Fold this protein.
Amino acid sequence: MRANRWAAVFVTVLGEHAAEGLACLKALVQPVKTISGALFGYSAARRLEQLLRESAAGVGTDVTIEYAIRFITLLVARNQFKYIDMILQKIEERIDKHTGTLAVTIESATPLDSVFEQELMRRIVQRTGAANIKMKTRMVPALLGGYRLRAGGLYVDASVKGQMDTMQADLEAAL
C-alpha cells in the first residue's frame, strides 16, 4: 500500500517526464543500496543528498535528476527507503498503464529465437490490443522445454515441466 502512494506521487509530480525520472531514480538507487549500515533519518538523508548530487552528473535532465535526488532523500528521511524495490515496480506499472504498455514475461528452458519472439509479440498485440509491449525473457532450465508466458492477466504454460505436472496431477486424481 505504501509503495502505491509513493509511486503515485512520483508519477504525478513528474508527469510526462516520469519515464525519464524512473531511469534516473534507478541509476541513483543502485549505489545507495550498497551503503552499509542504517540509512534513515534526516541527517542521513542530508549526507546522502550531498553524495547523490556529486555522482548524478550526466544521468538525466536537470528536472529529473533533481526530483530523483529529492525523492530518494525523502524516502531515507522518512525511513521508507527499505521499500524502494516495491516502489520502483509500482512506478513502472503506473507508467506502463499510462502509455498503454503491456509487460510480458517469457520463461524458457533455452534461449528463444528472434522469429519466435516476434511471432509471440504479434499474437499478444493481436489478442490484447496493447499499444506497446515490454518483453522480459528469463532462462529457467527446470522447464525442460517449451515456455511459460505472463502478460497482464494471461498465463500460458507450454512447458514440458508444466505438461508433466498436469499429467502427475491427473494420475493422482484418478487413483
Strands lie at 101-108, 132-139, 146-151, 154-159.
